[in-house]
């Protein structure tokens, strides 16, 4: 029976839409994957020596921060690792025992990237420990204990999947500990570190995570088995809908009609909500730059880079997928009496509003001085005047359908990669950086800012021209776009 | 109203899925398109709506060649499949959206919805559901009524009877018959179901592998003739 399952999985993998992209993309993704593996392995090898050089006992230090590592892992899993329940449906009516199905589904999660990727760090780290004279048996036991902890996370994630209240309270507690640790109020690691250390020092503590893995597996198994019905565990949740008419937008005519829809699009779909959250996080990206915490980020060019990103998070994450946001019903749009101009300006206005809101929210940067906030404001002007056009021009070439109902793919994955979009993306960042650097170098900081803002205003003057170009692309690519959007993942 | 001239569609793999030398659908006709799976019904409608490009020939809708000008859009409405629905809207929002695009105010749309309240069977309006969460049949009802907003002169339904319950099918037949009684409105319907099509259409064209194999005015004998044709 398992042989059949494995065959199914293999085919699902080979024939998945993400693998079916073009060969250049595959190579690129391959490089990306190798790059990350190398980074992980290098971190595993390097951690020992770096920590030692800094005067820390390497194993004890890793054990100290293990608690945060584990919870960060859980956090990432919660958002990204999905339970593969949907593919179970066709199996239910076949003559297969329920236990087999559940065992297989749970077993499958064990092979996930989220589990074995940690081995890329821990195996080299353990080997380096051995090479440096740590006791072999103890290191092996410690290693087994660590890997068990990740599997524990795996099954905890299965159990708390979609239980937001549990999840957020755990995160709040751990986040609280982290802050308390940072401000030296209370150090939770003094209590947790001995536990992880004991996995190395004793012969039995490593059994605790293993027993816990078995226990969580048992619970997950029972939970799944009892919920293996179409109307319970496998049911797709549907939201309670309420009609929102946004009548105040009626005064803008057709533009208002589209804006209304776009606002609903943003608020009611998982994928677009992820985009909103990401745009919000972008606002805090500037903290890395303006707190002077990273040396390389202190040059003036990177300061304006930060200004562009802080105000432009929404513009970039949303704009790069115009018109793919409407891919699910693009046929409808193309057979309705729609003026492209109104459609494009609606998206443009949405990006402008998003940029303005980000800029206002970012006003807390005034705390770092007026100049810092001016960087953001000028970044916003440049975003509205120039980048909004570039982003939409790039988006016009992206022909990947977006599945609004899943949060997947929001992290700028392969969908955004496309030679033309890459080419258009370069000036978005480099151009303002160069302008600011020139102004700053020859005159003063403020002249640099003025240059960036002026470029934005000049770009704004080209609005009609750019809209015409985008319109032409939409028209030229109409059939190809419709055909591409029809292909479901 | 609709003229088809030397229309053909060939895909890259060399398969010709549609080939119509000549077809003329006069204004006010209710036109039924029947055929097996793969006969080219949906392809024909997609070409009529300029969603795909013809390999040769053209279609004129009210003297406007559909792949050259967009001027046919204001008086043409269609429901092909669920990809014509916007999943994250409620039914009301969707109707008002289509209404806005067709220059109908809220009152016009409300009047139309009130007229078809029976058709919705109380499961659509104020159902607190987004369209994506409706059943297939209810989605279809929404799409069909949305296509009637703004008094279009050309109405296109692809497989409107599929997935509907018997009562709704009868109500839908009533709606289509009413539409076809209006001499200004041309209705195009495709279906696998010969009985339904014969009942609502006054002309029936049968497609087989992209070619027109029958073109008949509906009469009492039509059904028998068609059944004989599709008999195994």
TrEMBL record, chain A:
Pfam families: DUF5687 (PF18940). Keywords: Membrane, Transmembrane, Transmembrane helix. Coiled coil: none annotated. The chain crosses the membrane at residues 27-50, 62-80, 113-134, 140-159, 166-183, 203-221, 274-292, 304-327, 348-368, 374-398, 419-441, 447-466. This is Uncharacterized protein.
TrEMBL record, chain B:
Gene3D superfamilies: P-loop containing nucleotide triphosphate hydrolases (3.40.50.300). PROSITE patterns: ABC_TRANSPORTER_1, ABC_TRANSPORTER_2. Pfam families: ABC_tran. Residues 2-228 form the ABC transporter domain. Keywords: ATP-binding, Nucleotide-binding, Transport. One of its GO terms (molecular function) is ATP binding. This is ATP-binding protein.
